[in-house]
């Protein structure tokens, strides 16, 4: 497995939750990490907290000029190289199938699927030089059916299929493509899903602990460790790595 020290890594959605935790994980390992997010204050605060090996760039992954700025910043921060694109930015939209708003559906597909595809295209020439990788984020929603979550689940299903197709397409260029499928991990997306304030959303998620075979929800660090494996593993591509504490197994002790 290749060493992380000295790698140049771009993490979208890096201002909070899994993105910020993963950035901190790679900074500790000696990587040059660039984080992006829509909120300048959050990105600046996280980059400052992590120190000089972390660079922040504010931007929206659904905007072409912002995507180009993210790639350019990561390449510059990494000394002219890019080893990994971690397409972590995402949003949540829920609702009954007969009450969905078409524009909101288009918005979530743009954020969760289209943006990552376009970023991958921009990153390709740099990743080809380093024999690097792209990692998407799927969801246990593709394994467990949660009523009302069809928009989000559909985008994550698309990403898991996209992982296989792009692995086949980019393999000849030496670029690996992977996907992480997390179980229940508390992040701000739980609040954006309309599940209440931070405390209410956290308590609701804790209630899912018994639905996991291992009896608890996961941590951001455990997802970061999965990211590390896919970034370092040189003969692993096209796979979805499940890191869900057994939630996808459908245990019945909940």
What does this structure look like?
There is one protein chain. The protein is of the alpha/beta class. It folds into two domains: 200 residues, NAD(P)-binding Rossmann-like Domain (Rossmann fold, 3-Layer(aba) Sandwich), CATH 3.40.50.720; 30 residues, no CATH class. It is 44% helix and 14% strand. It is built from eight helices and seven strands. A seven-stranded parallel sheet has the order 3-2-1-4-5-6-7, with helices on both faces. Helix 1 links the parallel strand 1 and strand 2. Helix 1 crosses helix 8, helix 3 runs parallel beside helix 4 and helix 4 packs parallel to helix 5. The longest helix is centred in the middle third of the chain and has 29 residues. The protein starts with 7 loop residues before the first strand and ends in an 11-residue tail after the last strand. The model has no long low-confidence stretch (mean pLDDT 93).
Summarize the topology.
Layout: E1 8-12, H1 17-28, E2 32-37, H2 40-50, E3 54-58, H3 64-77, E4 84-87, H4 102-130, E5 133-137, H5 150-170, E6 176-182, H6 189-192, H7 198-206, H8 220-232, E7 240-243
Parallel strand pairs: 1-2, 1-4, 2-3, 4-5, 5-6, 6-7
Quick structural overview:
With 254 residues, the chain is α/β, with parallel strands linked by helices. The chain is built from 8 helices and 7 strands, in the order E-H-E-H-E-H-E-H-E-H-E-H-H-H-E. A 7-stranded parallel sheet has the order 3-2-1-4-5-6-7, sandwiched between helices.
């Amino acid at each position: 497995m290749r060493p992380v020290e000295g790698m140049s890594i771009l993490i979208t959605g890096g201002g909070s939750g899994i993105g910020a935790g993963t950035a901190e994980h790679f900074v500790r390992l000696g990587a040059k990490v660039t984080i992006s997010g829509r909120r300048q204050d959050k990105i600046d605060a996280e980059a400052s907290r992590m120190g000089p090996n972390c660079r922040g760039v504010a931007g929206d992954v659904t905007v072409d000029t912002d995507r180009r700025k993210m790639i350019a910043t990561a390449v510059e921060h990494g000394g002219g190289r890019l080893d990994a694109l971690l397409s972590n930015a995402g949003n949540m939209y829920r609702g009954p199938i007969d009450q969905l708003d078409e524009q909101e559906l288009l918005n979530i597909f743009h954020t969760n699927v289209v943006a990552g595809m376009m970023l991958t295209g921009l990153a390709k020439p740099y990743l080809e030089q380093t024999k690097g990788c792209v990692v998407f984020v799927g969801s246990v929603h593709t394994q467990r059916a949660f009523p009302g979550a069809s928009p989000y689940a559909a985008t994550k299903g698309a990403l898991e299929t996209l992982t296989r197709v792009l692995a086949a397409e980019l393999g000849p260029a030496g670029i690996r493509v992977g996907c992480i499928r997390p179980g229940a991990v508390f992040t701000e997306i739980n609040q954006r899903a309309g599940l209440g304030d931070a405390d209410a959303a956290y308590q609701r998620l804790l209630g899912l602990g018994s639905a996991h075979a291992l009896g608890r929800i996961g941590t951001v660090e455990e997802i970061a460790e999965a990211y590390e494996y896919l970034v370092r593993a040189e003969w692993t591509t096209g796979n979805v790595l499940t890191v869900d504490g057994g939630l996808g197994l459908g245990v019945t002790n909940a």
